[in-house]
Amino acid sequence: MNPRWDMLDEVSRAFVGQRWGVPIWGLAVVAFVVALIGGLWGWQRWTSRGQRAHPMFSFLTLAHQCGLSWRQQWTLFLIARHQGLASPLTLMLSPDTLHHHAGLYQEDISTRRGQRVAGVVSSVEADLFGESQTHRAGS
Fold first, then answer.
1. Within 10 A of 101 (CB to CB), how many other CB atoms are there?
2. How far apart (Å, rounded) are the C-alpha atoms in residues 108 and 52?
3. H-helix or E-strand containing 104?
4. Which residues contact 123 (CB under 8 A, 6 or more apart)?
5. How many angstroms separate the CA atoms of 138 and 18, rounded?
6. Residue 85 carries which DSSP code?
7. Distance (Å, whole) CA 53 – CA 64
8. pLDDT in tens, 5-60
9. Whole-model pTM?
10. Element (H or E) spanning 126, and its range?
11. Phi then psi for 45, rounded to 5 degrees?
């Protein structure tokens, strides 16, 4: 007999033999099912790519509609990233939220940079919430 066929016959017996008990066609079926499920998952992800939420895109759209400059948007992004927020949108919810996170951010940066951030935060506050809330009644 041909030595090549002997080797293939030996490999075939390893798959059908007592060691694994799984015929080679069973492995092919499992591989096909895995490939089919992976393909369907990839196709579903591809077709729904525009339907998933994009917090940064939402932030940029809202910030543009509110008239925030690129510098203000970048500062909000830096504060949100430093604080581990999912999106800078969180900072646009209320003046208290903005001041709380901005204050924590300013503690970790240099004094000079902190002063610049304070100026940008004040302008963001004025643009988003009207008159500056830094001089609230009772403060």
1. 21
2. 34
3. helix 95-107
4. 72
5. 84
6. -
7. 18
8. 677 677 666 666 555 566 777 778 889 999 999 999 999 888 877 666 677 888 88
9. 0.57
10. helix 111-129
11. -65, -40
